[in-house]
Design goal:
The structure holds three protein chains of three kinds. By secondary structure, chain A is an all-alpha fold. Chain A is built from twelve helices and no strands. Helix content of chain B is 28%, strand content 21%. In chain B, helix 7 packs antiparallel against helix 10. Classes of the chains: A mainly alpha, B alpha+beta, C mainly alpha. Chains in contact: A-B, A-C, B-C.
Chain lengths: 301, 527, 318
């Protein structure tokens, strides 16, 4: 949906990894990261959500699936801080449990995108030539295919499923990870110390492991963080169309979908999950942006 | 596409700019929206909000209820029709008579009836229409309900005789209630898919695909002059948007509220009225009688006891409806309220039955929910929780409707599903051996129903049907939840709305801002 | 000479990509379970009549034949006939594109109107609170889901203020005024989100210009910041914007589906969702392929435009 969150593959300048960032001495960057306000704000939000997700594994105020029709659609109270939904389920407990789903959708999307995209990008960088060209051209076709449209088509045809949708989003972002890792790998491969390592007779795989991966990793962390934001938004969009997780799974998007029907009666019921989605997306996207500016000034977009 | 060769956004952009700047009218799509938000619709026009758009215009080749909703009774009429109060009333016939052997019905045609294109209605049109149902290659979705029809003739210019292979108590009802009965203009039937022609109060005017269908008053209509010059059905996939359209005056009626819980926000306002009444639907938890523990009648009875149907009716149905306990609804001649009490909510009894069946620690089942049916996806979590309370662990699976048809209905690959069996008087499903819930005693049910249909009187038929219902209820073939109401929300002052949902048609014959004839209110149109 | 070769090569790649996309679309939909015939005839139909209708619709033909029928039709400019309504798909798709096209174009224009001035301002004032405020606002604009934004806008401008209709589209035949009025809220909803995304691109491009030697030289010669930007900026800002334009097209089409649902517009998105639920797969194939084609062709044009905008860009993208 928001392709540009992940940086513009193909935009001039995207591939220019500054020599400073590509160098082997990366130590000072993390301390700079801590001083960047957007990294700090994003990092805090993400950490908060991570803590909530972990806590919700062990404890939520109520069972997020337990129904009690007698107290359906009650507003905020001391017993139920954020009220109850149309089945009398505790909204706060469901929001907390929904954090797990949010991390889950991001993990699937990132695992697929990075798991296939990074090796493909590194391979294209190492081998170059026809193989490299073919790999990147396949990426172009995949990128041209509106994957979220495919996700909508598939879930609408098969029935609600988060996993199907997230696989489609992950596939859509393979080319992004491929491009970014290829571009930065190319820069690293042409740098002096890699040329030196080559002249000492080191094997390509060893060079990749020793020099390329450590220098590509920070950029991938940035991309992963941004893809998390995209995945959470996309999942919410699918849920809105009624194409996300099957009930009774407590997901933020599904909560908005259900709450919509009670918008006139109790708007807060819609506001809470909308707020949580916005904060989570904001967290990941601020973190990704901040890290990018700090870790890789050359990629500042 | 308008311009087949251009697919670039540039071309689309250009086209849109031209359209925007020049305001060139596009002949193909006829604009028929109700105009700007907030502004009242012009006099003589009624806009009705509905949920699903009709996928085609032809009720005789597509089962979608959305087609019947607009076209049946409004554009097309039958010899006899079902009034909102459930009575069979003569329409294109002025009367009918059964033969002594109860195998032939002779209908007398109403004189002076014309189709909306001006053609007069003849006995040959009726013969043509009914023969079309049973012809080879017929795509009438309910053709099988007319199975006993053997021949249709026109003994005179004003009568039509229908011969059945055996006496059939249900035949007249099926002719009245379902699209099998539509009378077509034999000369215009070739273009039924694009230019429907009927004798009804309204004539088809235009449609915007997936958005609206526009009807205009039929100038040749034989009956009470329609209350509006134009009626527009507008479709909303998003219930919230539909409610907004009603409150802002874009539409004046919601003909069947998708989410009954929304009724509350209109009930309290003096600008709106709520008209509701029973449908023939049975929302049920269908149990696969051939799947694992569900083979055991004790387990099925336990499930029926475990579920608080009253609470599901309240939460999902907004309280609009009736808890039922068998395959029958209050409108049926053989209905009895006692079925609803057979498996009154009793989790302790459910646990006891499960233990007796050899499952003291419960077991696991999958519940398949069809999309986009809100009653199913909304009932799912409740059913899960009630069954969990007696030890049955349920996993939900949501499938799109076409997939439900292929996986659940055709391949019978499911444990449980929630579905509204909307067809009226469909006990015969329990007599069909290949039906998807795999009931074991279809032969016995079949014998009872056949005996009932062949009965000389309706009381004889009712007695046999009641026996069949007692049998399927005792076997807890399915866990019947409730009979939902059809709920219309309309601006105050609109009268003549049908007060029930016994037909798929949304009967507009008497809908008006003026006054409704007493004969119509007696038939169940709101006064 | 070089140019013709280059364009020819790009065209070949485009054709191959379109072919691959058509295969992909067909393959995804071919494996879907569920039959149009069963959906059309419903639950009361006999298995025999369902089988008969399947045959009539050609659903029992081998997949290869079905693909060739469809793709061959497309090459002749024939989008096929709907299984369900028996109407030509082009007659259904035409009016839908007349809504979704203007909606997307309108959203793009609104997005650019937001992104260019605010993006430049936030870059020029990057160290001041106002610059930070713009950046934070754009982050929020991205983070708020489109449908939530749409619901809020509809509530405010349609249900409370009654300035604009909350749902629906009267048709272009009702006149440009009412038709455009109906598209304002949807286009703004989509445009705000788009503007927030584009803004960040403008900002970083401008920041790059501000750091460049030629900008510093221009400033040293006494030009005011905006003058210096106007002289050296446009090309450097346009290139990334053109890139984003190509990339965002796919996202905008998907965004349009959501917005069409919120505002009940009978556009391409609504049609897609309806056709999927009726298993009217020919129409679904056409729409998904059309969307892919729009994205691929735009990216092809973007590729070519690099060379117009910046002769330094070589034959290959990085």
């Amino acid at each position: 949906m928001t392709a540009t969150l992940t940086g513009a593959p193909g935009a001039p300048g995207t591939g220019d990894v500054s020599p400073e960032a590509a160098g082997p001495q990366a130590g000072g960057r993390w301390s700079r990261a801590r001083r960047s306000p957007s990294t700090l704000a994003g990092g805090t939000l993400v950490a908060l959500f991570a803590v909530v997700a972990l806590v919700s594994l062990a404890w939520t105020p109520y069972d997020p699936l337990a129904i009690d029709p007698r107290i359906a659609l009650h507003g905020s109270s001391a017993a139920h801080l954020l009220g109850t939904d149309q089945y009398g389920r505790d909204v706060l407990s469901r929001l907390m449990a929904g954090t797990q789903v949010a991390f889950y959708v991001g993990v699937i999307a990132v695992a697929i995108a990075a798991g296939i995209g990074v090796p493909a990008g590194l391979l294209a960088a190492q081998r170059g030539g026809v193989l490299g060209e073919v790999v990147m051209r396949i990426g172009d076709v995949v990128y041209g295919f509106p994957a979220l449209l495919a996700a909508i088509t598939l879930t609408a045809a098969l029935g609600a499923s988060t996993t199907v949708a997230m696989i489609a989003i992950g596939v859509a972002y393979i080319p992004v990870f491929a491009r970014v890792s290829r571009a930065s790998a190319l820069t690293v491969l042409s740098s002096g110390y890699v040329l030196a390592a080559r002249s000492y007779g080191r094997r390509p795989l060893a060079i990749t492991r020793r020099h390329v991966l450590p220098n590509v990793a920070p950029i991938l962390i940035v991309q992963a963080s941004l893809l998390y934001a995209v995945a959470i938004l996309a999942e919410a969009g699918l849920e809105f169309l009624g194409l996300g997780s099957p009930p009774p799974a407590p997901t933020w998007g599904a909560m908005i979908h259900d709450a919509q029907d009670y918008l006139a009666r109790d708007p807060m019921f819609t506001v809470w999950p909308a707020l949580v989605i916005t904060l989570a997306v904001l967290g990941f996207s601020l973190l990704g942006d901040g890290l990018r500016e700090v870790l890789d000034p050359g990629l500042g977009r | 596409m308008v311009n087949r060769r251009s697919t670039g956004l540039a071309a689309i952009a250009l086209a849109s700019l031209v359209l925007a700047a020049g305001c060139s009218s596009s002949g193909s799509s006829s604009g028929n929206g109700p105009g700007d938000g907030g502004a009242a619709a012009p006099a003589g026009m009624l806009t009705i909000g509905s949920s699903a758009a009709p996928p085609s215009l032809d009720p005789t080749s597509n089962a979608a209820a959305a087609i019947d909703e607009v076209f049946d009774y409004n554009v097309y009429q039958h010899l006899v029709q079902l009034a909102p109060n459930g009575q069979i009333v003569p329409v294109l016939a002025t009367g009918y008579a059964w033969s002594a052997d109860r195998k032939t019905i002779t209908f007398t045609l109403r004189p002076g009836v014309k189709f909306s294109n001006g053609d007069p209605l003849t006995a040959q049109d009726v013969v043509f229409s009914l023969n079309r149902v049973i012809a080879k290659g017929s795509k009438y979705p309910y053709a099988s309900d007319m199975g006993t029809l053997t021949s249709v003739t026109a003994p005179t210019a004003t009568t039509v005789a229908v011969t059945l292979s055996a006496p059939d108590q249900e035949w007249l009802y099926q002719l009245a209630a379902y699209s099998n009965g539509v009378v077509l203009d034999a000369k215009a039937a070739g273009s039924i898919a694009t230019a429907p022609v009927g004798t009804g109060p309204y004539a088809y005017k235009s449609q915007v695909s997936n958005y609206s269908v526009t009807l205009a008053a039929n100038p040749h209509y034989w009956g009470t002059t329609p209350g509006y010059g134009t009626v527009v059905f507008r479709y909303f996939t998003n219930p919230q948007a539909e409610n907004s359209a009603l409150t802002s005056g874009q539409i004046q009626v919601i003909d069947n509220l998708s989410n009954p819980a929304d009724a509350g926000q209109f009930q309290s306002s003096p600008s709106f009225q709520i008209v509701h009444g029973p449908t023939d639907g049975k929302i049920q938890l269908t149990l696969n009688n051939a799947s694992g523990p569900l083979k055991n009648v004790l387990v099925r009875q336990a499930i029926a006891y475990a579920i608080d149907k009253q609470s599901i009716l309240k939460t999902v149905g907004g309280g609009f409806g009736t808890v039922i306990g068998s395959d029958t609804v209050p409108g049926d001649p053989w209905y009895s309220a006692s079925y609803a009490r057979t498996y009154a909510y009793n989790p302790a009894k459910a646990k006891q039955l499960l233990a007796q069946a050899g499952y003291p620690n419960g077991f696991s089942l999958t519940l398949t929910l069809p999309q986009p049916y809100a009653y199913a996806t909304q009932s799912g979590p409740l059913v899960d929780a009630y069954l969990k309370a007696v030890g049955i662990r349920v996993t939900d699976k949501v499938v799109a409707w076409p997939l439900w048809l292929s996986q659940v209905f055709t391949a019978k690959n499911f444990d449980m599903t929630i579905i509204d069996h909307v067809e009226a008087r469909d006990v015969a499903n329990y007599a069909t051996s290949s039906y998807y819930w795999n009931y074991a005693k279809t032969a016995q049910v079949s014998a009872l129903l056949n005996a009932g249909n062949a009965a000389a009187s309706q009381s004889g038929q009712v007695a046999k049907y009641a026996q069949a219902l007692q049998m399927i209820t005792g076997d807890a073939v399915n866990a019947w939840l409730y009979n939902p109401d059809s709920i219309t929300v309309a601006k105050a002052g609109i009268k003549g709305l049908p007060t029930s949902g016994h037909t798929e048609s949304y009967n507009l014959a008497y809908v008006t801002a003026g006054s409704v004839p007493a004969a119509a209110t007696a038939q169940g149109f709101s006064g | 000479m070089n140019w013709i070769l280059l364009v020819g090569r790009r065209l070949l790649i485009l054709a191959a990509s379109l072919f691959a996309a058509s295969l992909l679309v067909f393959a995804i939909l071919a494996v879907l379970p569920g039959s149009a015939a069963q959906v059309i005839l419903g639950t009361q139909a006999t298995p025999e009549s369902v089988a008969q209708l399947s045959q009539q619709l050609g659903l029992d033909k081998p997949l290869v034949t079905q693909y060739l029928d469809w793709a061959g039709g497309l090459l002749r400019g024939d989008l096929g006939t709907s299984y369900v309504s028996s109407q030509p798909i082009s007659a259904l798709l035409g009016p839908a594109i007349e809504i979704t096209g203007p909606l997307i174009v309108g959203a793009m224009i609104i997005g650019l109107l937001i992104a260019i001035p605010l993006g430049m301002a936030s870059a020029v004032r990057s160290s001041k609170p106002s610059g930070t405020a713009i950046t934070v606002a754009s982050q929020l604009g991205i983070a708020i889901p489109t449908f939530v934004g749409g619901l809020l806008l509809a509530k405010a401008f349609a249900l409370e203020l009654h300035w604009l209709p909350p749902t629906g589209f009267p048709g272009w035949s009702a006149g440009a005024g009412p038709a455009l009025k109906a598209l304002v809220l949807p286009a703004v909803t989509l445009g705000l989100a788009e503007g927030a995304i584009l803004l960040r691109f403008v900002r970083s491009s401008v920041l790059e210009v501000l750091r460049s030697d030629y900008y510093r030289t221009a400033r040293a010669k006494g030009l005011r910041p905006l003058q210096a930007l106007a002289r050296h900026g446009p090309r450097n800002i346009l290139i990334p914007l053109v890139t984003v334009f190509g990339l965002e097209a796919g996202g905008l089409i998907v965004g349009a589906i959501v917005v069409e649902n919120v505002f009940v517009l009978p556009g391409v998105g609504s049609q897609l969702v309806a056709e999927i639920s009726n298993r009217d797969l020919i129409g679904v194939q056409d729409i998904v392929l059309l969307a892919s084609a729009v994205v691929l062709i735009l990216n092809f044009l973007v590729d070519l435009s690099y060379r117009v905008l910046d002769p330094r860009v070589g034959g290959e993208r990085a």
